[in-house]
Amino acid sequence: MSGIISIDREKTALVLIDLQKGIVERETKPYTSKTVVANAVKLVNKFRENKMPIFFVHVDFRNAVPLMMESDSTFNRGNPPADWVDFVPELGVTSSDLVVTKRQWGAFYGTDLEQQLRRRNINTIVLGGISTAYGVESTARFAYEFGFSQIFAEDAMADMSEEAHRISVEHVFKRMGRVRATEDILSSI
């Protein structure tokens, strides 16, 4: 999981999943939400410094019709506070950043993320966020099938369980792209 890699600044974008108040407040593993956000901020700063595109993705279920599939377990959405979808302030989202609002786990289905990446001639994404096995993995699976190369910032993502994070990283992400620590990605840009 370590090593410097070649990153084409002209064709690479940062995509951060669900680093929003209502999700970051949860307990995460193997990294705390605070660690995930701190590493995401390092990536954001490096991408901004190099004028590389940044996509902030958040989920908003408030006005969405829920999926009606039968399942053994589901997420308890309850009645989230008004700022639940707001990005954490540490990220410093600006008007020049691209914001994607999703209603599902992944960032591609039902959004214009693919179109926005292709219009910018992006063929590689650096991916991070919460949670590894849901929002990040669902986005990664679509990205893989759409033909995007992927770099996974392993310590800029976390899940509700360490096992779920580890399974996604070891058994899914390593087959779809390159898994690296934030510091290795920063050194590669």
Description:
- This protein has a single domain, classed as Rossmann fold, CATH 3.40.50.
- It contains six helices and six strands; from the N terminus they run E-H-H-E-E-H-E-H-E-H-E-H.
- The protein has helices at residues 21-24, 33-49, 113-119, 132-145, 162-176, 182-188; strands spanning 12-17, 54-59, 98-102, 124-130, 149-158, 178-180.
- The protein has a six-stranded parallel sheet, with helices on both faces.
Which structural traits does this protein have?
alpha/beta; Rossmann fold; six-stranded parallel beta sheet; 6 strands; 34% helix; globular
The radius of gyration is 15 Å
What is the name of the CATH superfamily? Isochorismatase-like
What would the principal axes of the Cα set say about the shape?
Answer: globular
How many discrete domains?
1
User: Mean of the pLDDT scores?
Assistant: 92
Tell me the strand percentage band: 15-25%
Question: DSSP helix count?
Answer: 6
Enumerate the spans where pLDDT stays under 50 for 5 or more consecutive residues.
none
CATH class: Alpha Beta
CATH architecture: 3-Layer(aba) Sandwich
Q: Classify the fold: give the CATH topology.
A: Rossmann fold
The counted number of beta strands is: 6
Q: Sheet bearing the most strands, described? A: 6 strands, parallel
Tell me the strand order in the biggest sheet.
3-2-1-4-5-6
How much helix, percentage-wise, in residues?
A: 25-40%
Structural class: alpha/beta
Ends apart, CA distance between termini: 17 Å
Order of secondary-structure elements: EHHEEHEHEHEH
